[in-house]
Amino acid sequence: MIQQIQTEIEQLKRQLDVAVMAHSYQGQEILEVADAVGDSFQLSKQAQVCSQSRILLCGVHFMAETAKLLSPDKQVYLAHPGAVCPMAGQFTPEQIMAERAKHPGCKVVAYINTTAALKAVSDVCVTSSSAEQIVRNLDADEILFIPDCNLGSYVQSRVPEKKIYLLPGGCPVHASVEPEELSAARALYPEAEILVHPECRKEITAGADFAGATSAIMQYAKQSDRNAFIIGTEISITEHLQVDCPDKRFYNLSKKLICPDMKLTTLMDVLHTLRDISRGTAQEILIPAQIQQAAQRSIEAMLRLGA
Ligand code: 13P
Ligand code: SF4
């Protein structure tokens, strides 16, 4: 049954000139039909270079918006219209402009997990994999980092020479991990290394063996000589790593690391959206011209400054 659905998806993709892009938090059956799989930074790069005229994004709304910002001439669709990252809209553009005014001379750095409207009032975007490098290289000593205070505080620990102002925002999924879960996992699997995402709270990144973006966690686990790992990011990564490295053991740091929005998209949503595209009834991602221009500038600055 799954194979039948995947075959129809592949046919429609070719017929309609669609590139399916999937964030690595999507399920295995979706990754199998994707033309590009990766974390936010890798998907942004792919959105820029892919040759198809249409992009179907399997992930959350800000990722589809980002693809549209990078490829304004392409038609971009989101596989599940209800998949919205709760962190992306935690602040309004007006709030950010008011905060900026409190720190004259500071630059606003927006985590890519924000709405296009927030990107539009920022100087540069960052992903979790490029945040440290971009903040270090930015020509400003004071930074207002939005919206994730945990990623911002992680970057502050790595770039102590700059002053980073934070707001009380963050990813509810990663921030839910408690220090007690870290010590319990260590006691249960003493042979395993703990790898966590910097969206986790400071106590968690400080107590882990490695902190990094989704792609960095995956790369670390694959290249390491160790055989066991406790994964402190969305639960799909534990599953994908177990598929990619069958001889190693992967454990979840916490059962709470399940993003309900990332889990909304099913293989049938991908098929239905492709069928809707062929009927001309699919809902395209559109961004008002004024926001598009300003937000595009911060995204392009990110690609220039972050390797
Ligand atoms: P990255 O894809 O940058 O690792 O971000 C993690 C995340 O929470 C995506 O929603
Ligand atoms: Fe947003 Fe967190 Fe879910 Fe990523 S894992 S989409 S940051 S809520």
Provide structural commentary.
With 307 residues, this protein is an alpha/beta fold. It is 45% helix and 16% strand. The protein has 14 helices and twelve strands. The strands form three sheets. Strands 2-1-3-4 form a four-stranded parallel beta sheet, sandwiched between helices. Strands 6-5-7-8 form a four-stranded parallel beta sheet, with helices on both faces. A four-stranded parallel beta sheet has the order 10-9-11-12, sandwiched between helices. α12 (235-244) links the parallel β11 (228-232) and β12. The longest helix is centred in the last third of the chain and has 17 residues, at 289-305. The model has no long low-confidence stretch (mean pLDDT 95). The structure holds 1,3-dihydroxyacetonephosphate and iron/sulfur cluster (SF4). Iron/sulfur cluster is lined by residues 60, 85-87, 113, 171-174, 234, 259, 261-262.
